[in-house]
Specification:
Two copies of one chain form a homodimer.
Chain A: H1 3-30, H2 36-43, H3 47-53, H4 57-76, H5 85-113, H6 116-122, H7 124-139, H8 149-169, H9 174-189
Helix pairs in contact in A: 1-2, 1-4, 1-5, 4-5, 5-7, 5-9, 7-8, 8-9
Protein name (chains A, B): TetR/AcrR family transcriptional regulator
Domain HTH tetR-type (chains A, B): 14-72
Pfam families (chains A, B): TetR_N (PF00440)
Chain lengths: 193, 193
């Protein structure tokens, strides 16, 4: 094969990976249990090609999760975190919730497939930003200090995940959940008299 | 076969089911990903026998979950729910958390396998009791009423599940989590000024 031929093959492979990741992101975002065959079909690539790039469902879900988390991380980095920590938390929660709504099913698929260590890694960027804000709220005396920061971060994550599940069950609407997530987290963090 | 022979066979089958359920409850409580083969081995029954009673992992996890939920429901029914709804909530949360700690991994295994409808059914008994208490707290003016009861119940469940995950990760100890679950839920439910 010529050098050009090798380069063309590599470009093809990269394009196929992108097609598979795009299709997988879209399908996983609505159905966390979608099969690899359905993803291959939607991407317009053969099963052999898909398995060539992603030897297992777990490998594909991991790649999709990492890509979703990267774009999520970029979106969250634009949130204004200055000023009163409670207002900043409200803004960060709203942005996080919008992204959770959009990619919630990917997170559910990831939960089924990724190891706790992988889950920790994909949450690391957003978690660091949230951590810094909770810490600032504690330092400024508006968030309670009688609980470990790690617990408060776990609570925020639990409320967001619980909100996804509640919307999925039809217990609350996605729009109402924006306010409910904010009010619940702020109440859990507030200094008590 | 004689009538006695049939009766003996039935008794054998019942005993095997109990042996499998006991082994599965014990093993799933420490490792939600334990295999059917390991469960059969621990129960001292053959794989064919196990598959005869439980045609799939999901069927076994469902049976174990239903049994755990039944005994959990019985344990929770002994909790004193009279008096100040906040104190009653603290007692109910502590009992629920002790049971979550003990059977948390079974719940995680159930999460992976059961459908949302099955999960709803297995949580129904404990959920009804919690629902009645939250409602009483709202009626008596000590729990906030600017959130749907269903959201408050979802939050309580999310905090309990989040606590299991936090203990599993080593973020907090199981003993500390008792207080943290209580304080977080009571803060989330409290009427704000």
């Amino acid at each position: 094969m010529t050098t050009d031929g090798v380069a063309a093959k590599r470009a093809d492979a990269r394009r196929n990976v992108e097609l598979v990741l795009d299709a997988a992101t879209t399908l996983l975002a609505t159905d966390p249990r979608v099969s690899l065959n359905e993803i291959a079909k939607a991407a317009g690539v053969g099963r052999v090609t898909l398995y060539g790039h992603f030897p297992s469902r777990a490998a594909l879900v991991e790649a999709v999760s990492l890509r979703v988390i990267t774009s999520t991380d970029q979106a969250l980095s634009t949130v204004d975190l200055a000023g009163d920590p409670r207002d900043a938390m409200a803004r960060l929660l709203e942005a996080t919730w919008q992204l959770t709504r959009r990619f919630g099913a990917v997170v559910i698929a990831a939960d089924d497939v990724l190891t706790p260590e992988q889950m920790r890694r994909v949450h690391e960027g957003p978690a660091r930003r949230m951590h810094a804000l909770v810490q600032r709220g504690r330092d400024e005396g508006v968030f309670r200090r009688d609980m470990p920061v790690r617990w408060q971060l776990a609570t925020i994550q639990a409320v967001l995940h619980g909100a996804s599940a509640a919307v999925h069950r039809g217990d609350v609407t996605a729009v109402d959940a924006t306010r409910l997530v904010r009010d619940t987290v702020l109440a859990a963090l507030a200094v008590t008299s």
